[in-house]
Amino acid sequence: MADLTISTEHAGDEVVVAVGGDLDYDSHTRLEAAIDAALHSAVGGSPGGLVLDLAAVTYCDSCGLRVLLGAHRRATEVGATFALRGAHGQPARALRLTGLDQVFG
């Protein structure tokens, strides 16, 4: 089990949340909190976009997938775009098998 790491940076009008390690039941609440903070931290209101960088995520279970869906929903609710980038290995397979790769584009 790899501990979850999270870092947030502002890039123009986007907020990029880089995630590493295992996104699972034990760690999903930390990412939910980071996403909420990122959506509320934009100067002057909501960000233009929320990007989740999953390049360093090694594992993603159903709780992790639920967090990704929730992030998509919350970004849409505040009028921000949403994108995933860098998913590979097991997380990419989980997205593909569930059809979520099509939802997130």
What's this entry about, in short?
It holds the Pfam family STAS_2. Residues 4-105 form the STAS domain. With 105 residues, the protein is of the alpha/beta class.
Helix content: 40-55%
Mean pLDDT: 92
Number of domains: 1
Rg of Cα set: 13 Å
- In N-to-C order, the SSE pattern is EEHEHEHH
Kindly identify the CATH topology: Transcription Regulator spoIIAA
Give the name of the CATH architecture.
Answer: 2-Layer Sandwich
Strand order of the largest sheet: 1-2-3-4
Q: Tell the overall outline.
A: globular
Distance between the termini: 28 Å
Q: What is the highest CATH level, the class? A: Alpha Beta
* Model regions low in confidence, pLDDT < 50 over at least 5 residues: none
Helix/strand structural class: alpha/beta
Proportion of β residues? 25-35%
Major beta sheet, specifics?
4 strands, mixed
Total number of helices: 4
The count of DSSP E runs of length 2 or more, i.e. the number of strands, is 4
CATH superfamily: STAS domain
Structure description:
Residues 4-105 form the STAS domain. This is Anti-sigma factor antagonist. InterPro entries: Anti-sigma_ant, MlaB-like_STAS, STAS_dom, STAS_dom_sf. The protein has 105 residues and is an alpha/beta fold. It has one domain: 2-Layer Sandwich (Transcription Regulator spoIIAA), CATH 3.30.750. The chain has four helices and four strands. It has helices at 28-40, 62-77, 89-98, 100-104, and strands spanning 5-11, 14-23, 49-60, 81-85. A four-stranded mixed beta sheet has the order 1-2-3-4. α1 (28-40) links the parallel β2 (14-23) and β3 (49-60). α1 (28-40) packs parallel to α2. The longest helix has 16 residues, at 62-77. The N and C termini lie far apart (28 Å).
